[in-house]
Amino acid sequence: MGQERLAVDFDAFERAGWRGRSEAYERGMAPLTTHLVEPLLDAARVESGTRVLDVGCGPGGVSAAALARGAHVTAADAEPEMVAATARRLPEVRVHHAILPVLPFADGEFDAVVGNLVINHVGEPPAAVRELRRVVRPGGRVALTSWFYPKMRATVVFDEAVAAVGVPRPADVPATSPFQPYGHPETFTALLTDAGLTGARTEIVEWRHDVDPDAWWTAVLTGTARTAAVIARQNPATLERVRAAYLDLLTPYRTPDGRVSLPAAALLSSATS
C-alpha cells in the first residue's frame, strides 16, 4: 500500500469515526484539551483585531477564547456536527465545513491560523501545513498542537490496557496516525520549516488531567475515534478485561478523593509565514 492510499484510508476512517461524536467529545475530551488553548493563541499572537482561522475547531473552544481576546474569528472543521455545534455556540464566528488539505479561503486571508490537536488527524500532514501557510498573510503566524506520546499518560493507558489483554486491532482501524513521524519536537519543527514557514519552534506543554476514572473511561470510549473503535467493538467479557487492566494501570495516579491525576503532554509548534 502506497503512502497516498494510506492517507486516503486514514482520512476515510477519521470521517466515519468522528461521525456522531460531537456531544460526547465536548463533554468528555474537551476538558483535557482546554489546557492548550491559551498557549496556542499566545504562540499565534492572537489579540484584538487579529483575523484568525481556527482549523479543526471541534465544538468551538479555541474560537471562543479567540473571540474573548477581541479577534475576528473564522472556524472550520471536517465533521459537520462539529461545525453545527460551533455555529450554535458562537453566532459571531464564520464557520465552514472543510477538510484539510483543501480550505475554501483566499491566499493570505488571515493574520493567524491555529489548530488544536488537528494535525494528527489528517492523512497528509505536509500538504495540510502547506495549505495553512497559503491562507496566512506574509508575516502571519501558524500555531499547531499534537499529543506528545513519550510523556502522555492520560490516553496512552487505554492502549496499554488493550495490549495487556492481547486484543487484536481490527483490520479497518489504522494502527497509527500519518503524523507519527512528526511527533517529536525536531520533526514537528521541520514539518513547518519544510512547508516554507520561518522561525519554527516547538515546545513541550505538560499538565495534569484530574478526572473520575469511570467518567474518563466513558469519555474515551464515546468521544474518540481510533481508541473507541478498538475497545468498544469487543464482546462483554473482553471489554471487562480491558477495563480491569485500565483500572490497574491507573493505580499510580490515584488521589485520596477517588479520582486520578494523569500526566498529559503535547507539542506546540509555531512559525511565521
Automatic annotation (TrEMBL):
<dbReference type="GO" id="GO:0008757">
    <property type="term" value="F:S-adenosylmethionine-dependent methyltransferase activity"/>
</dbReference>
<dbReference type="GO" id="GO:0032259">
    <property type="term" value="P:methylation"/>
</dbReference>
<dbReference type="InterPro" id="IPR029063">
    <property type="entry name" value="SAM-dependent_MTases_sf"/>
</dbReference>
<dbReference type="InterPro" id="IPR013216">
    <property type="entry name" value="Methyltransf_11"/>
</dbReference>
<keyword id="KW-0808">Transferase</keyword>
<keyword id="KW-0489">Methyltransferase</keyword>
<dbReference type="Pfam" id="PF08241">
    <property type="entry name" value="Methyltransf_11"/>
</dbReference>
<feature type="domain" description="Methyltransferase type 11">
    <location>
        <begin position="53"/>
        <end position="143"/>
    </location>
</feature>
<protein>
    <submittedName>
        <fullName>SAM-dependent methyltransferase</fullName>
    </submittedName>
</protein>
